[in-house]
Write a structure and sequence with these properties.
Rossmann fold; 3 domains; disordered C terminus; about 475 residues
Length: about 475
């Protein structure tokens, strides 16, 4: 009953049922698993005010079953008010393990689903709550040929099979309801539905709940059992969970396109002769069909950026819509989009052109002057750091490519700014252009700010600063 109420999102009925089971099981062989379930339930709801009941349950369990060692006691602070060596060692070990997992993921062709085994957390939680911008997942290639191939696969397919990440992403982007418009057979293997349901029992999050509700009630999605189709890879069962194996077999058996949001997975599917696609292609297809508008598309790109997927193409308008949704603040997802500038093979001028358009749009809004100027200096810092990593002043060719763009950002801002914004920008110029080889740009921008303050419009627009 408790589990049923969890799935139906009835928190207090779930807790009441768990408490009843705990009381009823006292003195029986079921006392231990029931208390364990109660504690797991309290952990699930800890963020919504059940910490006291969680701690009471854990202490009760530890007292009754001390041999399980579910609590590890460490003295946190010594007599000098400093962290003890035990706590330092624990934190250091945790950091080392995290770095090892990241390095392994970077250096080996491992699917993103491997991370859940290493971190021992539900995959939905790992994907939805990511805070390390260096821990990225390859999603797509910045190649027209690659996109054309995936789009062709989608258009020609009569059936579509989905992987877990793609479904979670489509749920986060609120696009699940549009899938029926494809007029194709939509398929999910039963093992994946079971996994989705079991993870919903462990964690409560919006994208996961919407996905579970959609799958269980949708008339358009077929939940199918495994097929007898054989795969080429003999070691597949050792590498992948059963739902992945079943999904690949289903796609192969039904000649379906497999929508998978993991570039490494798509490459593996190709080796099995299975045609692939991903959610960014579905997103672009929906925009082209006018099932969604440009704003929804932009916000959806932001949703994918929140997962630290790469490589995500975006325009100045896309970045603007995402920033407006984030109340003009720099967030992890916008930081990630901008930081793609540093990816191998990126074209700097394509980014700086996007930044110009974004600044142009941002300065037309009523955003706080502090937020506007923070964005201006942030984008300038990113561009200058990129130049430094290309060799700094030694690489004059790279500097000449992007210098007109980052100066143009400042000139647009100057032309549109009021006195308060000009004052803020004047204070930031020295900080932004703090290297000797940037003095010429600093002088140009300072001169433009002063000219605008004096209302000298002729001087403001005179001369060719690009020289």
């Amino acid at each position: 009953m408790s589990l049923d109420e969890v799935l139906l999102n009835n928190k207090y009925l779930a807790i009441a049922a768990a408490q009843k089971a705990r009381d009823f099981s006292q003195g029986t062989k079921m006392a231990k698993p029931v208390l364990s379930h109660f504690n797991a339930l309290m952990l699930r709801y800890a963020s919504s005010g059940e910490v006291d009941r969680l701690m009471a349950g854990i202490l009760d369990y530890d007292q009754r079953y001390p041999d399980d060692n579910i609590l590890r006691r460490l003295k946190a602070v010594n007599s000098k008010g400093q962290l003890t060596q035990g706590v330092k060692s624990y934190l250091s070990k945790s950091k080392e393990e995290s770095e090892k997992i990241k390095q392994t993921f970077r250096s080996q062709a491992i699917l993103s689903y491997w991370i859940e085994k290493m971190l021992k957390r539900p995959y939905a939680k790992i994907l939805s709550f990511r805070y390390d911008p260096e821990f990225i997942i390859e999603l797509t290639l910045p190649s027209e040929e690659f996109e054309k191939e995936l789009l062709s696969n989608l258009k020609s397919a009569e059936r579509i099979v989905f992987d877990y990440a793609a479904l979670l992403n489509l749920s986060k982007m609120n696009l699940l309801g549009h899938l029926a418009k494809f007029d194709k057979q939509l398929c999910v293997v039963e093992e994946l539905f079971v996994k989705i349901q079991s993870e919903l029992l462990m964690v409560e999050q919006e994208d996961l709940r919407k996905l579970w509700s959609f799958l269980r009630s949708s008339k358009e999605v077929d939940i199918l059992k495994e097929t007898e189709t054989e795969l080429k890879g003999e070691k597949n069962p050792e590498l992948f969970d059963k739902w992945i194996i079943d999904s690949m077999k289903l796609a192969k058996d039904r000649s379906a396109v497999f929508v998978a949001d993991d570039l490494r997975f798509l490459k593996f599917l190709h080796s099995e002769g299975i045609k692939g696609c991903n959610s960014p292609i579905i997103l672009k297809f929906m925009l082209a069909k006018e099932w969604i508008d440009a704003k929804v598309y932009s916000i959806s790109v932001g949703d994918l950026a929140e997962r630290f997927y790469t490589f995500l193409s975006f325009t100045g308008g896309d970045l603007f819509e995402i920033v407006m949704e984030d109340n003009s603040k720099i967030t992890l997802r916008t930081y990630h989009l901008v930081n793609q500038l540093f990816l191998p093979g990126s074209i700097a001028t394509s980014f700086t052109g996007v930044f110009i358009r974004f600044i142009d749009l941002l300065w037309k809004t009523g955003s706080l002057p502090q937020d506007k100027v923070q964005w201006l200096t942030f984008l300038t810092d990113r561009i200058l750091e990129f130049i430094d990593k290309q060799g700094g002043i030694q690489n004059k060719e790279e500097l000449q490519k992007v210098a007109p763009d980052f100066v143009q950002m400042w000139l647009i801002a100057v032309q549109r700014s009021n006195k308060g914004e000009l004052a803020l920008m004047g204070k930031k110029v020295e900080e932004a252009f703090n290297k000797p080889y940037l003095t010429v740009f600093k002088d140009i921008i300072t001169e433009k700010i002063e000219a605008k303050r004096r209302g000298d419009s002729t001087k403001e627009n005179s001369g060719d600063w690009r020289k």
